[in-house]
Structure formats: structure tokens, C-alpha cells
Amino acid sequence: MNDLRSAFDAVTAAELHQSSRIKWTLYGPDVLPAWVADMDFPVAPAIRQAVQALVERNDLGYHAVPLSPELRETFVSRMAERFSWQVDPRSVWPLVNVVQGLDASILLHTKPGQGVIVQTPIYPPFLAAVEHSERRLVENPLVRGASRFEIDFDQLEASIDDDTRLFMLCNPHNPTGRAFERSELLQLGEIVLRHDLIVVSDEIHGDLVYAGHEHVPFASLSPELAERTITLTAATKAFNIAGLPIAFAVFGSQELKQPFRKLPPHVLGHGGILDDAATLAAWTDGQAWLDAVLSYLAENRQRVIAFFSERFPGVRLLPPDATYLAWLDFQELDLPGNPREFFLERGRVALSPGSDFGSQGERCARLNFATSKNILEAILERMAKALES
Ligand SMILES: Cc1ncc(COP(=O)(O)O)c(C=O)c1O
């Protein structure tokens, strides 16, 4: 654990600027990036070894099945152990990544013009998936409460009409960091049942939940809800291996799976042997690394909360229950222009623009705090200078 922490501490901006990651290459060397949801920490030793072993054996040819039976079984046991969610191995479907699953689910389970519900502000590919498929965006904005964002159940119920077909849930939620409680999900479930909706639940942040909160898979709530749910998840977010993409769809019923089965097998594609091996290593031998990352992230989260509440109380930030993302609201400050431009120009810090997450994000920006303590301090100091300028 201490070795891992030292390795996280040792990460430097100079070294990261040399990498090929988009987070560090999109902007020049004078910018500190805190935008795309990638972490700056070295990968888990078990993953490095698994990938190296394949490369050293020249074992990079075609492999027999899109998802190794071992990985399928490991996924199923992991869901049971960590989240008390019993998954039928036959219901697991390999995908390249989670966003592919969002797009495919909309295309295969709704028709143009039909309503798709999303809880804004939201991870931008949710909005893009609705727009590109020419479905109708039905927004259920999350409401800023005293200590957390809340679901507006009345607004949700009122916004559903006969042609609203699908609810795209993001749990834990990006960018607000909410890990919805069982009671909230059950209330959502009642609405889903009442209006006969399909749920597509993106649970990619499910492993990144802080003490005092838990990840509850939507499909684990009840057999009735499981039956109408497509769950999408992957190890790539928590283990920081988005460059080795493989993701999982879990279909709660044959009806939900059928349209995917009918597609020509190569239309969607799937991960390759390195991706399979990396995720298998993450889930079988990566827990110590993940625990170390979570405790490091918990400290960074506290630091970010303390920084804004002590020095810039006008910046509104509700502590995330999960994720390494802080949704910063600058509404009360009279910043010239949008916050992302402001911090990029005056602080040389690259945040994710809030407007990408929906119209109510105009005065917001998302900060990624999954980096070394030194880099995080440098980011916060640059933001402070910008705000004080
Ligand atoms: C909620 C959410 N879903 C999906 C993704 C991307 O997943 P993938 O790379 O598997 O498409 C992200 C990445 O940040 C995310 O935050």
C-alpha cells in the first residue's frame, strides 16, 4: 500500500506531458489538465504483468471467443461479491466500451422521435446518443439540495408521455458524483414500472464509491426491474485502462438481448486479447491497487472540498459520493465568459466545460482530481490565482 502511495505521489507533470494520453496532449506543456476522466496514476502491477506476458509470448493473434469464459465468470462473481447482484452468465454481452452500449441500446430499443430520459447535467455522450439517433431528449434535471443533488420525482413523472420509452440512468452519476441510494432507486423504479420504461444503466463508476456510500446496481433492486434493465459497465474507469477497452452489457431479459443478437456479429465488435487480459488481471489481482487509489482519491476529494469552502466559498461544490470528479458551480461569482475559458486563459488549467453537460451547466465546470497531491496543489493554486486576478 505504501509503495503504491509513493508511486502515486511520484507522478510528475513533466513525465505525463511526454505520454500519449489525450488528457495531457490536447493542451500545451504550460497547461495542467483536469478534464477528461482519466487518472494520472501508474497502472496496477497485475495489469502491467498480464499485458507484458502476452506481448513477451508473442501471443497477439485471433482468440477463440469475444469474451473469455474466465472473464465472464470473474465478472459474474465480482458483481455478486461486491454488490450482491446475481448475474446470469448467459445474460452478459461483451462490448468495446460503455458508450457503444448507450448508442446501441437507444438505436435498437427506440424509434426516431421517441423520448429518452436523462438526468442533467450529464456525461456528454448521453446527450450525443440522443441527438445523433434523432430521439427526443426528455430532461429530468437533478436539483441542488443542501448537501447533495436530488432526483425531482414529480418533474420526472410529469415529463413522461406515451411515447417516452427509455430511461438512461448514470449511477454513480457523472458529473455530480451521486451514488443514488437504494430508496431513491426504488422510487425511480416505481415510475419506470408505472410507465413501462426500459432502463439503460451506466454503472462504470460503481467501483469508485467513498466510505459512507454504496453502489446499488439498478438491476439488483428486484426481478421486475432487472427484467427491463440493460446494465453497462467496465473495469476501465476504476482501473484506469481506457486504452484497453472492453465493456459488459447485462440484459435482464431475452427481449432486451434479442435485437443485439440479430445484428451481424461484427457490427458492434468487442475487445481484443490484451483488453480481456487487462480486465481479468484487474478483477483477480488488482484489488490492493484499487483500495490504494480509493484512499488516495478520498484525501484529494477532502482537499478539494476544503480548498473551495475555505478560500472561495462562493464556488458551490457538493461533495461527490463517488467518482473523482468535482462539479463546480461558479454562478455566484461574476466570472467573465465561461468558467472553462476563464481558468484556461487566466490559470492555464484545463477543466471540462460545464455547458457540455447540458444547458444548466453554463456557469459550471468539472474538475478531475485523480492526480498526485503535488499536481492537485498546483491546479488549485492556479485556480486561486485566476480567481484573485
Ligand atoms: C458515466 C460514464 N460512462 C461511460 C464513460 C466512458 O466509458 P467507455 O470508455 O467504456 O465508453 C465515462 C467516461 O468518463 C463515464 O464517465
Structure description:
It contains 15 helices and 14 strands. It has helices at 2-9, 13-17, 22-25, 45-56, 69-83, 98-109, 124-132, 153-159, 182-194, 223-226, 254-262, 273-285, 287-311, 339-347, 373-388; strands spanning 32-33, 92-95, 115-118, 136-139, 143-144, 149-150, 164-170, 198-202, 229-233, 247-251, 325-329, 349-350, 352-353, 364-368. Strand 5 and strand 6 form a beta hairpin. Helix content is 41%, strand content 14%. The mean pLDDT is 97. The strands form four sheets. It has a seven-stranded mixed β-sheet with strand order 2-10-9-8-7-3-4. It is an alpha/beta fold and 389 residues long. The protein folds into two domains: 2-45 and 287-388, Alpha-Beta Complex (Aspartate Aminotransferase, domain 1), CATH 3.90.1150; 69-285, Aspartate Aminotransferase, domain 2. The radius of gyration is 21 Å and the shape is globular. Helix 1 (2-9) packs across helix 13 (287-311) and helix 6 packs parallel to helix 7. The structure holds pyridoxal-5'-phosphate. The site of pyridoxal-5'-phosphate has 15 residues, from helix 6.
In short:
The chain is an alpha/beta fold.
Secondary-structure blueprint of this entry?
Layout lengths: L1 H8 L3 H5 L4 H4 L6 E2 L11 H12 L12 H15 L8 E4 L2 H12 L5 E4 L5 H9 L3 E4 L3 E2 L4 E2 L2 H7 L4 E7 L11 H13 L3 E5 L20 H4 L2 E5 L13 E5 L2 H9 L10 H13 L1 H25 L13 E5 L9 H9 L1 E2 L1 E2 L10 E5 L4 H16 L1
Parallel strand pairs: 1-12, 3-4, 3-7, 7-8, 8-9
Antiparallel strand pairs: 2-10, 5-6, 9-10, 11-14, 13-14
Helix pairs in contact: 1-13, 4-12, 5-12, 6-7, 13-15, 14-15
Bound molecules: pyridoxal-5'-phosphate.
